[in-house]
Design goal:
Blueprint: H1 2-11, E1 16-22, H2 27-41, E2 45-51, H3 54-62, E3 68-73, E4 80-93, E5 116-117, H4 124-134, H5 154-165, E6 167-171, H6 172-176, H7 180-183, E7 186-188, E8 195-203, H8 209-221, E9 234-235
Parallel strand pairs: 1-2, 1-3, 5-6, 8-9
Antiparallel strand pairs: 3-8, 4-6, 4-7, 4-8
Length: 238
């Protein structure tokens, strides 16, 4: 049980069960990259990984239902400690017939909300994008967007985009996992490149410090090295 695990942890044994939450806009790209590293560094630990939205994660860490989680920070929650692990830039996915299809990169001023396919409420990714667009009062209704979609799934956004319903913004790892033909439709965003900070978060009184260090190391080893440097100011999740 829990007490036994804490005793083992204090002795420095890396054993037992570890419950890890991951936000949905990261989970499909992160879990398969991370699993081999966890097995390599923590072979005796049983991981229970759950995809959960940020609000649920915060509650679950407060109530000790989760040991740690991977999500976009800063959260600025008093009881929750954050260890930034990598910085994930966003890229524009612009379909062939789109008004920006000929551009080499996309300026912030060219992002039009009506023309952007976004995830549903409750995903910090959506809030980041709205923040990117929302600093300008003029952001308007130039796009012909007729479908408002509520999904937590980037695959759906990419497919709709290719059907001509608008452009979308994708985090780097999602973009990197697209098929080669779809990657041709990616464009960089203008500087400062919108970027999200991904951190391992856990309760301030968590005893399983060595375990957390090994998980942090595993995450860093499972993403491209260029994401480890803080090149741009991250967009804060709302």
């Amino acid at each position: 049980g829990r007490i036994g695990e804490l005793v083992q942890e204090m002795k420095g044994d890396l054993k037992g069960t570890f419950r890890l939450g991951v936000i949905p806009t990261l989970a499909p790209q992160m879990i398969y990259r991370l699993a081999p590293k966890l097995r390599e560094h923590l072979p005796d630990v049983r991981f229970r990984i759950r995809e959960m939205q940020t609000e649920q994660i915060i509650e679950a860490i407060r109530s000790r239902e989760l040991d740690a989680a991977l999500l976009a920070t800063p959260l600025n929650e008093r009881l929750i400690q954050e260890e930034p692990l990598f910085y994930e830039p966003f890229m524009a996915f612009v379909p062939e017939e789109h008004r920006l299809a000929k551009e080499a990169f996309v300026l912030h001023s060219e992002l039009v909300l009506d023309d952007l396919l976004l995830l549903d409420e409750g995903h910090c990714f959506r809030n980041s994008v709205l923040k990117l667009c929302g600093e300008r009062p003029d952001i308007g209704s130039e796009g012909k967007g007729t479908i408002e979609i509520q999904t937590g799934n980037f695959d759906s956004l990419v497919r709709l985009s290719k059907q001509g319903h608008g452009m979308t913004l994708l985090p780097y790892l999602t973009a990197a996992d697209l098929p080669k033909d779809d990657q041709k439709l990616l464009k960089p965003l203008d500087h400062p490149i919108p970027t999200r900070e991904i951190s391992l978060v856990f309760h301030r009184s968590n005893f399983r410090q060595r375990m957390i260090e090994m998980i942090a190391r595993s995450v860093r080893e499972s993403v491209p090295a260029r994401l480890l440097e803080k090149k741009h100011d991250p967009i804060e999740p709302l």
